[in-house]
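Q: Fold this one first, please.
A: Sequence and structure below.
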Amino acid sequence: MAIQATYREIEQTLGLVPEWIRQMPEGGASGFWTVARDFWLAETKIPNKYKELIGLAVSGATRCKYCALFHTEAARLFGASDEEIAEASLMGALTMMGSTFINAQQIDYEKFRQETLDIVRYVKEHPQSKAA
């Protein structure tokens, strides 16, 4: 019976209960909705537009056409421009490219960590650098 209350709340918020949520087992649907309501849709430290742009970048990396469509439209709903959507997509692609190469090459993590910290320190100490 609790699932009916969850469905009512989803419908009041979204206008309908998507079929993919209806197909989730009851505990999964209720748990998913709780996180969606209290984090994803709520006002948090990260503005909703940025959360959707992050979702879009992750969608590209995971190759999920459902998520890419959803997060693109949600980003637009929260005011993202086509240019911001393209940048988020490229950031996801760039991150995946670097990740794929670094992992395939089996780069030493501690060396990578130290180099990253050195780069951050350098950029902080040299604000005239292009990265800052």
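Q: Good. Now the second chain.
A: Here it is, same layout.
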Amino acid sequence: MTDLTETTPAEDLVSAPFFLRGEVLHGTDVIQTSRDLGVTFATPRIPFDRAVPPRTEVPPLLNVPLAEIIDFLVETGQRMVAKDNDHMQECIERMCRTHILPRAVVEHTARHAAAYLDKRTLMAEVEQNFPDPRALDEWIPKQDYTGRKSFVRAFAPRLIHVLPGNSPGVAVKSVAQGSMVKAINLFKMSSADPFTMVAILRTMADIDPQHPIVKSMSAVYWRGGDDATERVLYRPQYFDKIVAWGGGDAINNVIKYLGPGFQLVSFDPKTSISMVGKEAFGDDETLDRVADLCSADVMTLNQEACVASRYQFVEGPQEQVDRFCERLHHHIARRAAESGDIRKLDPEMREAVEMMSMMDDEFGVWGRTDGKGLVVRSEEPVDFHPINKTANVVRVDSLDDAVKWINVATQTVGFYPIDRMADYRDRLAAGGAQRIVHLGEAGPSTIGNPHDAMYPLHRFVHWMAHEDGCAPSGN
């Protein structure tokens, strides 16, 4: 991060404005650098007095009925995909300058993200997270078995959201969830995407600049780990919780500020896998179909998403597993070509794979390190983190042997065949896995289901109890 100087012409910079509770703040005061591509972009300085509302202020959304909030979110989703929405169009143009994914993937993901703002989807999220959703709108009377009375409410929290840069969908989901729990929200945008959240909020402001949702939202950018900024914002006198997405560095930056009254809700780094049983080798048609399903999981968001499969545990002798690897590589390469993604592997991974290609007895390699799709077959998971259209097929004699590689960082397990899933789900959960799905269905999820082994909205709110009566004497 550096100050703008005369040697950096403003017209050459991508500008990333801020949004502060209904107002857009433009400026090129600070030069920032995107994490993945090293592209520079300019932002204003953060006006802390405008980004942090005082604790004495009742949250603007507190007494707005949930039904009204959802209606506004639905209207926002419709406006996001409207052809005349200049905010979203401009957002995509700018994001293509800073994002690692190709334009076609960015555009598709941005359009698809708005589908989350559907009334049925939003209501399902609330109903699954709260046994009694009325707690978001009112104080719910309670009485225990002793006769003692109280009222309980899911009170509007104050949240800082540390957003990832891999998908605009997280921005859409975060603004919806922050609205439904009636929070005061400060969104820290990612250097890979310092645009989507502001575009969403500007779309909302066009609908109604005075709406309490608009007045509850701010979006800014600072470099993660910037102590001068984070020691100001990450305080319990200003916020209740940090909702953090992202890699290990992003989570570690947050942890050091935690303390009494200031909590972390973490969507921390996860690794997803595939488990393929010997049934895949029934005939050539089945083998090709299963390999294609597996490639769909590998290539979810071009392998940038947590649900994207990194390791594929395949049950069978080496000769058959090698046949699977050949078909898997074919389908990964096809999907990569269709997306227009030609990113090459990073130098360290490229060197590791090239070394493996010379060790025929231990490894098999299909494809090259040119970013067009790659499969590495091994007897144990490789040491590097497979990414950028790279699959690591681990041959196992039995899927039972794959279970030992499950841990608390294992998010999604894509499984084939379907009729063996129930035999493994308890063992996968015991190992730490959080989700098991049909092979090929890692991307979509059942609406309202837990995310990363929790119900997020239930974690976001500030649960408040109002005790209002003593138990009868003698109890």
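Q: Anything worth noting on the second one?
A: The longest helix spans residues 318-339.
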